[in-house]
């Protein structure tokens, strides 16, 4: 197996897929692919990061596909089969796979993440391997919840909660931190250790740790090729992170939240320019590059369905990976279109917590993207929610949806006076 991987990696380095449709279509040795679920594997030095991709209609004029992490399915934006090459473009992010068909059951190539401008990562795709890390089952028990501490070189450690579901060695769950969660993780118990991974088109996470009684030890966290951290955990059903409603607040001397920033057309706007008085407003401080922000916007779209724009208004303040408004507009509009939201936003500039704090001085800090600010009809800040726990967190996500649904109803039902403001 090691010899096969090395051989394939060499082939990838020497013969990358062609970007020229004419050159690929002219090849006479085209091999038909198999429709169905493929096991993809990113090669991270001495480790592999596996995930599933379903590809259908490969021998038709309109092939399509989706990335699978546990119960999550992320549609691919575009699938092209040209000669002996396959190109898979991800939906929310600017990245793609360029693969060469080696046989009906094997493709080799690389993943290109254009947003982060990192070197391509060698990728192998195999059909018929219906597992994440291992096909074997395991009777080794793991706990449902762990108190976790992450350690990063030259940085303070941070707390997290690991929630796990174990189905005879098949694992699913996620890590929760005070700035959000690591989304849908999928994996296995193997060799007395846990292995978890996820891939969304931009973020590739790999977690490993040894099981020792009620603890997880010698844990490692890899994000892509270059980032790594260590972690340990101990079983703890009672541990809680700080309440996300108490982490961000208005600075002393500020009674209202406001801004003076360019909109998607480059015109500087503030609260009064957007006709928000008398409406319930949700300000979403976010970025199109941020998977928790995408989850939050999907949740907000569901929560806003019962209300018109005259009742509740969503204002996205986007901090992007670029200072260029035109590039930012392309990324944010793509995200909003995929979710089904209005393609309007306020542009905060380059994505950094320091920059966001400078652009929004009424807040004590920006600790996380997203940060959600709920404002009533009288412009009072009712609640500021730091980070977001998405659907991969189970009950934490359910609690957010139920509590926010009740909060919106309370704010919308509050009476208004003749000036459009609440009494």
Describe what you observe in this structure:
- This protein has helices spanning 2-14, 21-25, 291-304, 325-339, 353-359, 395-413, and strands spanning 36-44, 47-56, 64-69, 72-75, 78-82, 85-89, 95-103, 106-113, 121-127, 145-151, 158-167, 170-177, 180-181, 185-190, 193-199, 204-212, 215-223, 227-235, 261-262, 268-269, 280-286, 312-320, 346-350, 371-375, 381-386.
- The protein is globular.
- It has six helices and 25 strands.
- The strands form four sheets. It has a nine-stranded antiparallel sheet with strand order 4-3-2-1-9-8-7-6-5. Strands 10-11-12-14-15-16-17-18 form an eight-stranded antiparallel β-barrel.
- The longest helix has 19 residues, at 395-413.
- The protein folds into three domains: 2-18 and 31-127, Lipocalin (Beta Barrel), CATH 2.40.128; 145-235, Quinohemoprotein amine dehydrogenase alpha subunit, domain 2 (Lipocalin), CATH 2.40.128; 244-413, Glutaredoxin (3-Layer(aba) Sandwich), CATH 3.40.30.10.
- Strand 15 and strand 16 (204-212) form a beta hairpin.
- It starts with a helix and ends in a 10-residue tail after the last helix.
Count the helices. How many?
Answer: 6
Total count of domains:
3
Number of strands: 25
The CATH superfamily label of the largest domain reads Glutaredoxin
Mean of all residue-level pLDDT scores: 91
Question: What is the terminal-to-terminal distance?
Answer: 72 Å
**Cα radius of gyration in angstroms:** 23 Å
Strand content: 35-45%
Strand order of the largest sheet: 4-3-2-1-9-8-7-6-5
CATH class of the largest domain: Alpha Beta
CATH topology of the largest domain: Glutaredoxin
